[in-house]
Design brief:
The chain is α/β, with parallel strands linked by helices. It has 2 domains: 5-63, DNA polymerase, domain 1 (Orthogonal Bundle); 68-352, Aldolase class I (TIM Barrel). It is built from 12 helices and 14 strands. The longest helix has 19 residues, at 133-151. The chain is globular and about 70 Å long. The two termini are 38 Å apart. The chain binds iron/sulfur cluster (SF4). Iron/sulfur cluster is lined by residues 113, 115-117, 120, 122-123, 165-167, 200, 220.
Length: 368
């Protein structure tokens, strides 16, 4: 593969640029996109609407390389978790959540995560590296292919959440490129409402995303005051709640007053009191928002516990009574460690020791 490109790394605009660079018309990109992402054909020899000469030429310049699924775990509730190994031995996790009316795939964007949220299994692994566009879109491609093979009929995902391992806005360029492929009519053709990016609150990334690729935004809030949030989500020290919510207001306003989803993991005796709920109502009052309450999924060694059901219901009622649409998310896949906050994968030890380094991305950086 030396000097060869991986065509999975290209969104359509960059694939068009590639074809221009080899003096081919840009519509070739649309042809290739349909073969690869719609028909799941990645053998250039089978792309029969390209000339034989062009197919030979393309195979001398690049190929379609995917990560490899090394393990599949199935939950009693139908959730499937795939462990996928990358070229350097890192392992990331992808989770399929089948429901009656939709099939949602939760995709990882980084091997490990540098943000170290207190309740999260990924954060405890440390950070290894950003995933490439091909490693991100490859998770989607593989999920559709694997399930289609099981079912012996074409399987299409209806919803994507960038909510797996890692902070997607700290791998901005590759994540945006992958999401553009998800939205592309010649690839997966998903609507912006059905692609959700979840962030711990990387404010510059939220602003950029609003103009580059305004998909549905979800924010991991988890606390209604800065002291507690800084303890649970250390990134809060850099971007405190007021700064974060202002970014959410801008995002919503610039995107037809779109609703921002706030994720709130309920931790027993930590952030689950009535006064926490009331504080949350005043924070979110003027923002088109909805809240997903997530009863905590056990992660060994964190010391956190899940509140009892009455506390969860009371918390939800306070928010709903204040006019904020609030649901309690059903826990899915906890028996296979696939539930929210439980994804750990396996990140390589060398990189693990580098976890305090700044995360490299050419467009979004956290300084200080
Ligand atoms: S919750 Fe998200 S941002 Fe926080 S450590 Fe886990 S993966 Fe990283």
């Amino acid at each position: 593969m030396e000097n060869k490109v991986n065509f999975f790394d290209y969104d359509r605009v960059s694939l068009e640029a590639f074809f221009s660079s080899i003096d081919e018309p840009s519509y070739r990109a649309r042809q290739v996109f349909q073969w690869v992402h719609r028909r799941k054909v990645i053998n250039l020899a089978d792309m029969t609407d390209l000339s034989v000469e062009l197919r030979h030429r393309l195979s001398s310049l690049g190929s379609f390389e995917l990560p490899k699924v090394v393990e599949e775990r199935r939950s009693q509730d139908g959730t499937i978790k795939w462990l996928t190994t990358l070229w350097d031995g890192n392992i990331v996790e992808t989770v399929l959540i089948p429901e009656v009316k939709r099939n949602t795939l939760c995709i990882s964007s980084q091997a490990g995560c540098a943000l170290k949220c207190a309740f999260c299994a990924t954060g405890r692994q440390g950070f290894s590296r950003n995933l490439s566009t091909s490693e991100i879109i490859g998770q989607l491609w593989l999920a559709e292919e694997i399930v289609s093979n099981y079912r012996q009929e074409q399987f299409k995902l209806s919803n994507i959440v960038m909510m797996g391992m890692g902070e997607p806005l700290l791998n901005y360029s590759n994540v945006v490129s992958a999401m553009k492929i998800m939205l592309d009519d010649f690839a997966y053709g998903l609507s912006r409402r059905r692609v959700t990016l979840s962030t711990a609150g990387v404010v510059p990334g939220i602003d950029l995303l609003g103009s580059d690729c305004p998909v549905s935004l979800a924010v991991s809030l988890h606390a209604a005051d800065d002291n507690l949030r800084s303890r649970l989500v250390p990134l809060n020290k850099k971007y405190p709640i007021s700064v974060l919510l202002n970014a959410c207001r801008r995002y919503s306003k610039n995107n037809l007053n779109s609703t921002v989803t706030f994720e709130y993991i309920l931790l027993k005796d930590v952030n689950d009191s009535e006064s926490d709920a009331l504080k949350l109502t005043s924070l979110l009052g003027d923002l088109p928002s909805k809240v997903n309450l997530i009863p905590y999924n056990q992660v060994e060694g964190t010391g956190f516990m899940v509140p009892n059901i009455d506390v969860i219901n009371k918390f939800r009622m306070i928010l709903n009574d204040a006019g904020i649409i609030t649901i309690t998310r059903k826990t899915r896949g906890s028996d296979i460690d696939a539930a929210c906050g439980q994804l750990a994968g396996r990140v390589d030890e060398y990189s693990n020791r580098q976890q305090n380094k700044k995360v490299p991305d050419e467009k979004v950086k956290i300084s200080g």
